[in-house]
Design goal:
Strand content: 5-15%
Shape: globular
Largest sheet: 6 strands, parallel
CATH class: Alpha Beta
CATH topology: TIM Barrel
Helix content: 25-40%
Radius of gyration: 21 Å
Number of strands: 13
Length: 419
């Protein structure tokens, strides 16, 4: 029987196992997790979400504190238009995070980074270009452009010496979105090296509207495959969202896809950056616990566990130290919702029902974004005598995808439980 390991992904002159780990932020796709995929011969993603915050937490730098001090005069002001990132500091933070991972790279796989356009950071083009240049200078193997159409992104790095060397891909949820990016890429004489087609069952932010349930990943992938074939474009297509077993992956490979991107099953691995208490909540989740809502300050729909601690919080916006979703005018959907929320009879701020402060709560791992198949995670491991679930290693999950047949999932050896 055919298994995923029978296939290979070719990107230019490089060959990989056809398994790509998605870039989950903030620091959920840790360097440890991405580097395991790389060591095993696949592709692992870092996320560049909130790199200054991640650098401070991991390397004891002070980018967030410095920015906070610079704008402490503005903390009680509703107007956040003066809040800007220092581009040199942003560059150094991203360089620090990415370089530290690149220096540890082993194996024949690829170390990529997921870069979101929706991190507007008070100056969308300037901050996006800075993050991209830092990742390129740090030696990243590939860049996956996400959370936006990116129709002006390539122009930001067209003069970088690695522009034609580094692998560049785009995440889309429709043929239309891919066509928009292709038009801009042709102007830069730089077609994408791959296209990740993310369907409606993916975790986190979705590229769909309220009618997301009407869409089907296989149908979208089929349309994209037809488009690249008809246009004679040599662009490998990589589906993502809801691919839970190796057999699911093989079905896409047999359609003509080049690899698959997965994430959900890696959220409960030892190398994942989620705290263990959160991993246990993922493992215990039932299907009815998984919801799609409009609470994101980005304006996108977002899939998460309905009991995420961030929901219904009245946390005061921390734009001075953070401010990752601020527009160039200093606005943010959470800011609007926070200031529109009143107080109770004791003068206490009521819960903000409409939006979540992503900057604060993602950094605290309080936004429990998840794929639609998260409720199936309990079937991938052992339940322990104390009622908790055994965490997996990334290597175990990776190999299960490679060699699984008939949608079977191999449970880990029970003796692997840590003392």
């Amino acid at each position: 029987m055919t298994v995923l390991n029978d296939f290979r992904l070719r990107l230019g002159d490089d060959e990989y196992l056809p398994l790509m780990l998605g870039g989950m932020g903030v620091d959920i796709s840790t360097a440890d997790l991405a580097l395991e995929a790389c060591r095993l011969g696949g592709i692992g993603h870092l996320s560049d979400a909130m790199a200054p915050w991640v650098s401070d937490r991991k390397f004891k730098t002070h980018f967030t504190k410095t920015k906070s001090g610079r704008y402490k005069f503005n903390r009680d002001n509703v107007d956040k238009s003066e809040i800007k990132f220092n581009l040199e500091e942003l560059y150094n933070a991203t360089l620090k995070v990415v370089s530290a991972a690149v220096e540890r790279k082993t194996g024949d796989g690829g170390l990529f980074i997921n870069v979101m356009e929706k991190l507007t950071m008070g100056a969308a083009a300037d901050t996006l270009g800075t993050r991209l240049r830092a990742a390129l200078d740090a030696g990243i193997d590939g860049i996956t452009l996400s959370a936006g159409l990116h129709n002006a992104t390539l122009k930001l790095i067209k003069d970088h010496p690695r522009f034609h060397e580094v692998k560049i891909g785009i995440i889309v949820s429709s043929v239309r979105a891919l066509k928009i990016f292709i038009r801009s890429a042709l102007k830069m004489d730089r077609l994408p090296d791959y296209a990740v087609v993310e369907g409606p069952l993916a975790g986190g932010h979705l590229g769909f509207g309220e009618d997301w349930a009407d869409f089907d990943l296989k149908k979208i992938v089929s349309e994209v495959l037809d488009y690249v074939k008809d246009e004679k474009l040599d662009i490998p297509v990589i589906p993502a969202g809801g691919i839970f077993t190796g057999t699911d992956a093989v079905e896409y490979m047999e359609m003509g896809c080049a690899a698959v991107q997965v994430a959900t099953r890696f959220t409960v691995t030892e190398e994942c950056g989620l705290p263990e208490r959160v991993k246990q909540r993922y493992l215990a989740a039932e299907e009815e616990d998984i919801v799609v809502n409009s609470l994101s300050a980005t304006g996108y729909l977002m899939r998460m566990l309905k009991y995420s601690p961030a929901i219904g919080s009245n946390y005061k916006p921390q734009c001075e130290p953070l401010g990752y979703t601020l527009s160039s005018q200093g606005t943010c959907l959470y800011l609007d919702a926070y200031h529109a929320t009143g107080f109770d009879e004791n003068g206490k701020k009521l819960p903000v029902e409409d939006k979540i402060c992503l900057c604060h709560h993602f950094g605290q791992h309080n936004v429990w974004t998840c794929g639609q198949n998260t409720y199936r995670l309990k079937d991938t491991t052992n339940k322990l005598p104390d009622g908790s679930y055994q965490l997996l290693t990334a290597e175990h999950v990776f190999n299960d995808y490679l060699y699984s047949e008939n949608h079977k999932i191999a449970l880990p050896e029970l003796q692997a439980v840590r003392a």
